[in-house]
Structures are given as structure tokens and as C-alpha cells.
Structures
1.
Amino acid sequence: MTKLKQFLDDNIATYRATKQVPYVFAVLIPFHILAVYGLYLGYQSWDWMYAAWFVAGWVIFGGLGACVGLHRWVSHKSIEVRPFMRPIMHWIMVCSCQGSAIWWAALHRGYHHAHADNPERDIHTPKDGFWHAYMGWMLKVKHDTINLKYGIEYLKDKSMVWHHKHYNYVLWGTLAVMMAIDPMFAFWFFVIPTMFSLHSDSVVNSVCHFPGAGYRYYNTKDQSVNVPLVGWLAWGQGWHNNHHKSPRHFDFGTTVSGKWWEFDPCLLLVPFVSPWRETKRLWSQWYRAWRHNENATPVEIV
Ligand SMILES: [Zn+2]
Ligand SMILES: [Zn+2]
């Protein structure tokens, strides 16, 4: 009971400090309830159109929003995005349901990469337990857990700051518009794919830092491992030991390791957001690594 009271008190404090309903109550709980309800409705009267909407939503919000936008573009700056695509990406990143881009980048750079698997500083290391790394940490985050100074350059970007301050309005406004168009569209294009992607990224945070869950090529200071299924199905994020070795490479797979089968599907999304020369740059890096196969060999399993 005291734990529940502490949890509620922390969330009330977050609300007072940020003037926004905290993530757990604004996104995590309601979107999961809506996703389950949408799945139930789909089960009641299935239409293959729902599957097409799901794939489109998974590509746009999970692939472009979370994996390309939040992770590679904003956090690691490993891709150039066309100027006219930037505000669109700001909106897509909000709709990926993983918190504001400034917050995400600050957490990812200042706490995860800088202190990976150090339980004192890494917010979601499995050293604090598998469930904690999977999703439990989201319930424990307070308004002052993440110092936004690790995303300081974005505090000068008006669009990014606006999307940060109005996060819940943008997200729920988008949901309301989609619900008005067609509730099943809102469920299958937006709510279900974003919750699916949130869980696949939670698999990355937990399984891909779990000793023995995969293999390592590089002796990074953390426990990161490459997990092929997560690499192929979660937009390359599962080539995670490669990513901790070279966080500034856009491609987490072949470009780092030279292994052709460590393909990073995010490469397929580059032409949608980047100028042609950027697409050419990233794809030729991949091609060179593939041709010259650097033959990274697994090191010890931690
Ligand atoms: Zn990691
Ligand atoms: Zn990263």
C-alpha cells in the first residue's frame, strides 16, 4: 500500500512540476487498455484491411518515429533529415508513444549509453531485474529523474520544445482525429502498432542487455548482446552489441560488423526522410562493409 501511495505521490509531483498528466496515466495505461479493446473488436469482426493498417502504423510510428527518429536522428544524430520532413518527424515521434523526443534523447544519451548497465546511472539495466528493464522503470521515472541537459541543443529548437510541452495534447489530439475518421482505423493504424512497438523496444532494453541472450562481437563495457530475431523484427535494434560499439553508425548491423545477415531494416526507411545524397552515403557504407566483410568474430558471452 505504501508503494502505491508513493507511486501516486510521485505522479502528482510530476503533474505539478510539468503541468502535464504523467506518461503512465496519459499514455501507458490508457493506450494499453485501448489496444486490448481494439484487438477484441478486431477478433469480433476481422477484416484484412486491419492488418494493412497495422503494418503501415508499425512502419510509420515504430520504424520511422521511434527507431529512426527518436533513436538515430535525435539521440545519435546518425542521419540527416530533409528540412520539410523535420516537423513531420516531430509529430510522428510524439505519436510513437515513447515520451517527448528531448526527454528520450536525454535519457538515452546521458543515462543509457554513458553508463550502460551501471545500476547507479543506467535507468533501465536488467541488472536491476528483467521486469524493471522491460517496463518497470517507466513506472518509477519521476519528473526530475532525467536531466534534460543531455539534450540541451534541442532546448533551442522551437518545434521540439513545443512538441515537448504539448506532448499529451498532440498525442490525444491525433487520436481524437483518427477516432472521428474511423475508430477501427485509430485502433489498428495507431494504438495497436504503437503499443506493439513499445513492447518490441522494451524487448531491446531487457533481452538485448541480458547476459547469454545473444552473442557479442565487441568487448563493450556493458552487457549488450546481438539477438538476431530482435535485429530483424525490431528495426535493427537487436544488433545491440554492434550499436553500443558504434553508436554513431546509422546502420546497427552490417555496416558495423560486416556480416551480411545482420541486416538493419531501418536502412529501407532512409529514402522517406533523407535527401538522396544521404541515402547514397548510408547505403554505400553498407555496401562497402558487405563487400569487404570485416569478419567480426564473437567474443566471450558475458
Ligand atoms: Zn543498450
Ligand atoms: Zn542508442
2.
Amino acid sequence: MARSSRFRRGEHQRETSWRQDPLYDFMLKRTAKINRKTKETDIVLTLNVDGTGKYSIKTPIPFFTHMLEAFARHGLFDLNLKATGDTHVDDHHLVEDIGLCLGEAFSSAVGNKKGMTRYGHFVLPMDEVLTLAAVDFAGRPCLVYDSKVKVGKIKNFDIELVVEFFQAFVNTAQINLHIHVLKVGNKHHVVESVFKAVTRALDMATKIDPRHKSIPSTKGSL
Ligand SMILES: [Mn+2]
């Protein structure tokens, strides 16, 4: 009997306090679904910020698909993406529009950022290459992209599109993102290290820290 009543008391305490728990808002809600269709591209994307890195990515650009798979896996974000577009013209429209949709999904999923860490950073080695990414969910879009490898091709993929992707992502996510390739090398390593460093920084920044009882800003909003 004693054990049973303790259990009931515990249940009751949880019942009355769970709505005040900053974790509660997010465990249920940090997801987003984005549909975007224009004459150039058709994109359906779902994101769960509190995922485990499960993904299903379908784009007609194999190297870019590889990058987005790495993004989902290493940021522990669940990401489903089906994207088609006028890639017979150029990959530019589709890569940029996926960046816009992914940024929109992050912005929507994190909501008012209550209880969120806000800042994140990562320094990622990939063999001879070393890349730093730092992010602030500031509510203001700003990208600083610093790499000696900004042009060229990886198979058919145009490396110039990497900065286009992150600029689009930053614009709709409303974040401040610094990407610095500190040590260049193989082009595939450079680009992949950028995607992995960014996603690890995003994972850190989007984590809920229960010590934050409110929105992580002295202004009171972000
Ligand atoms: Mn690779």
C-alpha cells in the first residue's frame, strides 16, 4: 500500500508540473512540413529537430543528396525531402530552393526558441581538411562564408552552389552563420566538411537546455 500511494503521489506531482517544464513545448512540436512549388521547382520537406538522424532524401543531384544525407545523419535531424526541378537548365534553382525550404523548416520548427541553447559551434576535421562553423539563432540573417575552394566541380556538381545554398538557408532560417574552411584540401572533403560542421553546430544551438526558463535573450525575444 505504501508503495502504491507513493507512486500515486509521484504521478500527481508530474501531472501538475509538466506544463511548466520548458521541455514540454518542444518534445511535441519541434517539427515542420514545407511544401513549395514554383514553375522552377517542386519541393516537399519534413523536419524533426529532435530526431535521431533518420532521412529519406530524393533529389536529382547525387552529390547534393549525399550532402543532405550527411546533414541529417550528423545533426541527428530527421529529414524527409522530395525535390524535383529544372535541373536540365542548371542545378542552381533547385539547390537554392531546397536551402530556402530547409531554412524555413528550421525557423518554423524552433518557434520562439524558448529554452533553446541558441548558440552552437563545431570544428570538423575531414582527413587533411579542417572546417569551423558557428551559429546564432539571432533572428537576423547573416552569412559569412570563407573558403579558398569556392569554384570548380565535384563530378557534375558546381561548388559555387554551396554558398548559394547556405545563403538561402540563412535567409529563411533567420540565423547568423559563420563558415570558415581553415585548411583546404580535396574538394569533396571541403564541401562535405562544411555540411557536417554546420549541422553539428545547428545540433548544439537547437538543443534544449532546461536551465533556460525562457527565450535565450536579454531582449526577451529573438
Ligand atoms: Mn563523401
3.
Amino acid sequence: MTRASLDKQPHEVASMFDDVAERYDLTNDVLSLGQARLWRKAVDKAVGARPAERVLDLAAGTGTSSVPFARTGAYVVPCDFSIGMLREGKKRQPWLPFTAGDATKLPFADDSFDAVTISFGLRNVQDTDAALAELYRVTKPGGRVVICEFSQPTWAPFRTVYTEYLMRALPPVATAVSSNPDAYVYLADSIRAWPDQPALAALLQKAGWQKVAWRNLTGGIVALHRGTKPAA
Ligand SMILES: C[S@@+](CC[C@H](N)C(=O)[O-])C[C@H]1O[C@@H](n2cnc3c(N)ncnc32)[C@H](O)[C@@H]1O
């Protein structure tokens, strides 16, 4: 069983997700105390996919994050570099065009998608700037990005309780539910080391995205960042 370290070596990250693939969605629901479903609805609304639009769901894993976009009639491409996650996704959602690809070297032409999105994936990519630049490259001028990622609760007392949850409650619960509980030690560590809301917004701006803004969900446990690629 693999647990990635915080230097996020791509082969370690990919094989860690290969190990959790089978029980990934169940573990998510349990560890997020059911909040994951609400977060997905908020992402769906923020992306606002329309019929016939092309949407890239990067780091799509088992494709659970991709399904809501497909339901709108958009053409959704779930892309991920964990073959285990892609295989599990293909079993559950055989109609989706799962594509193997690394976020830092996307296998798509420039200006291919109306919207690009990544849920709980960017934090796991070794080179955040490279992934944001690739997302920008494959987005059509005038297109949009939505990033859903763990962030910093804004109210200090809640932040303290949440950090305690990450450090103390999450590992034993993960041991009971996940096929690779060690992966959830990485989850807690990587969340604590991740940029807060303004810092991630600054990275998006640096990559060229305009009209960057964010919205907190569940008190800032999760943030949805959005941005637009300037029209040509
Ligand atoms: C926590 S899962 C999220 C899956 C899905 N988006 C969801 O919301 O359930 C993170 C995913 O990021 C993928 N990932 C991490 N680094 C990646 C990279 N450099 N390129 C492509 N996928 C990557 C992992 O393989 C894993 O499937």
C-alpha cells in the first residue's frame, strides 16, 4: 500500500489512488459526513455546463465529479493519471470518455474546452503552477475554470475544531472504511499544507486567469475558485 509524501511524487500519488479506488466514493461520503454531495452540487452550479459545451473534468478519479456535467447535455471528458481510478470509473460510468493524462502535460490541443474544472485534485498535483497553466492552455478564449479544493475555515474556533478532526478523528474512521487508511494521513497533511483562499486566487491570477473569485463552502472547509480566460 502506498502513502504519498508531501513532495507529491507523481508515481506515489497515482499508486496511492490506485489503492483506494474501489472504496473511494464510499470513504468520501463517510469522512465528509455527507457534505461531499453538497459540495458537488455547488461545483455543478458554478460550472454551469450547457448542452453541447465541452467540459474537462481534470483529476476526475472515478468520474463521480463528472456525472453532473454530463447530465446537463455537455460533452464531458474525465481525465486522470491513476489507472486504478480510471478503471473503477469506467466500470461505473461506461458511457463517459475516461482519458489517461497528467495534469502538468495534458493530452489536449490548445483552446479545446468551454469549461475546465478540477475537484479535490489540484492539491495532489506536484506542480500547481504547471497544472494551472495547462488548464489555461486547453481552455477556449472566454472559457472558465472552477476549482473545488479543501481550504481554510474562516472562523478561528471552527478552524481549531476542524484541525482536531483532521488530526484525531479522521485516521481511525479511515481505518474502518478505506482500503488504504494511510492515504488518509496524507489527506490530512496535504490539506494543512495547502494555500488558503487568497493564496490560491493569486496563483490563478499568475497563470493568466481573470475575474478570479472564490466562494466558501461549509465555513471554508472547501472553497470554490473561479476564473475566466480572456476572450481573444
Ligand atoms: C481526491 S481524487 C478526486 C477525484 C474526483 N475529482 C472527485 O471529486 O471525486 C484526486 C485525483 O487526482 C488525481 N491526480 C493527482 N495528481 C494528478 C495529476 N498530476 N494528473 C492527473 N490526475 C492527478 C488522482 O489520481 C486522483 O484520482
